[in-house]
Structure formats: C-alpha cells, structure tokens
C-alpha cells in the first residue's frame, strides 16, 4: 500500500511530531483562552456522586454540543485552578478530558482527548514517581501515589480525529489521572485503606475554593 500524503497524516486540531504524537505545546495561551472564553464554568462533582464511580459512555457524536462541552470544561478547569478535568467531574457521562498542565521541565501542554486509552508500557519503561496527587473531585486532599513517570494515551480530538498524546513527570500523572476518571476511578481508589481514609478526612475538614455539587 502506498504511503499516505503527508498532509492527510496531519489532519486534526493539533499538528503531530515525527513520532505521530500531538504537538500540544504551541500557542497554549491562545488555544486555552479560545476554548475557555466560549464556555461557562460549572460546579465540580465530588467523591460519592454516582457519575464519578462508573465507566463513562464513549463519545460518538462530534459536533457543536461536544464543542460547547469542551469549552465549558476549560472554563470550569480554570475556575477551579486545575490542570486537568474529566467530563464526569462536571456531571457529564462522556469519555472526554481536557488538560492545561506543565511537565516537570515547566513546559505547558494544552489539549483535549476523547475516548482515551492508556498504552500499556513494558516493565522497563515503568519508572515510578511517588509524588503527591490531588483531585478537584476530592477537594483539599492530597496523598502520595506511585505512578509511572511516562505515559502515552490514544484517543480522538474534539473533531473525531485520532490522536496520540505522551507526557513525562507531572504531565504523565495528569494523563493517567484523567483517563482513570473516565473509567470510574478516583486516585483515592488506588490508595491503601488508611491513606484513602486520611484523604477523605482532609476533604471533610476543609472548604473547597470552588463551587461543588453536594451529594444527596
């Protein structure tokens, strides 16, 4: 089979590098503000809300409704001062997350992934980082959690084009954390019982700095 035309290989919201991964580090301020200014900030769902504890539905329709959801997610993420946000964190049962996150070198990454899947890495590429982790859906709580310091995610952009995203350090943690959300897992579900209890205690003892949806 003949090789595809180069322009066809690069069709999508973001350009790709020579390895086929999106280049999400260019025009970050312009792109993030473009999304956010079209959106409306929504309150954040918190642990205990049923939408956070089940696998979300696949995104199958790519159009104006999804575009507005993505804009609302960027607006909500900025209001809550987060670095990543999954759709179920604003109560929407769809597999889509947005991110505005720096890696450990201080490089800013901004993008959208629908229907994400984490690439299973070989053991020799799973160097664990045991840094603290927090979550907008578990406000004010933090706990150390070991995760690989490199991650690759495949999925689609908000127009339905296939995408591959990779990250290191803190950004790798973000990609894993947000993908987890869309399959019904919070980071506290990966903690020991003792650490999970401590995280929930931290949440109970402090007030979130952004609007949340009360459970029950």
From TrEMBL:
UniProt keyword list: Hydrolase, Iron, Metal-binding, Protein biosynthesis
Matching Pfam families: Pep_deformylase
Superkingdom of this protein's organism: Bacteria
One GO-annotated biological process of the protein: translation
Compositional bias per record (Basic and acidic residues), positions renumbered to this chain: 31-40
InterPro entries noted in UniProt: Peptide_deformylase (IPR023635), Peptide_deformylase_sf (IPR036821)
Co-factor note (free text): Binds 1 Fe(2+) ion.
Binding site for Fe cation: 135, 177, 181
Enzyme active site: 178
A molecular-function term among this protein's GO annotations: metal ion binding
Top EC class, one word: hydrolase
Its EC number(s): 3.5.1.88
Cofactor(s) the record lists: Fe(2+)
Catalytic activity: N-terminal N-formyl-L-methionyl-[peptide] + H2O = N-terminal L-methionyl-[peptide] + formate
CDD domains: Pep_deformylase (cd00487)
Region (Disordered): 22-41
NCBIfam families assigned: pept_deformyl, PRK00150.1-3
Its job: Removes the formyl group from the N-terminal Met of newly synthesized proteins. Requires at least a dipeptide for an efficient rate of reaction. N-terminal L-methionine is a prerequisite for activity but the enzyme has broad specificity at other positions.
Family per record: Belongs to the polypeptide deformylase family.
Protein name in UniProt: Peptide deformylase
Classification of source organism: Bacteria, Bacillati, Actinomycetota, Actinomycetes, Kitasatosporales
């Amino acid at each position: 089979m003949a090789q595809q035309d180069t322009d066809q290989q690069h069709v999508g919201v973001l350009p790709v590098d020579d390895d086929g991964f999106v280049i999400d580090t260019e025009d970050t301020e312009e792109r993030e503000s473009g999304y956010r200014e079209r959106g409306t900030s929504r309150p954040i769902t918190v642990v205990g809300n049923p939408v956070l504890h089940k696998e979300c539905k696949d995104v199958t329709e790519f159009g104006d409704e999804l575009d507005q959801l993505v804009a609302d997610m960027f607006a909500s993420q900025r209001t809550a001062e987060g670095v990543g946000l999954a759709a179920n964190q604003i109560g929407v049962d769809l597999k889509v997350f947005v991110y505005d996150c720096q890696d450990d070198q201080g490089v800013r990454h901004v993008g959208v992934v629908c229907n994400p899947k984490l690439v299973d890495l070989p053991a020799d590429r799973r160097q664990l980082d045991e840094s603290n982790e927090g979550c907008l859906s578990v406000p004010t709580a933090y706990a150390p959690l070991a995760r690989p310091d490199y991650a690759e995610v495949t999925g689609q952009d908000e127009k339905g084009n296939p995408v591959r995203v990779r990250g290191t350090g803190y950004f790798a943690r973000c990609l894993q954390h947000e993908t987890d959300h869309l399959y019904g897992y919070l980071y506290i579900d990966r903690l020991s019982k003792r650490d999970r209890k401590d995280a929930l205690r931290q949440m109970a003892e402090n007030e979130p700095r952004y609007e949340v949806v009360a459970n029950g």
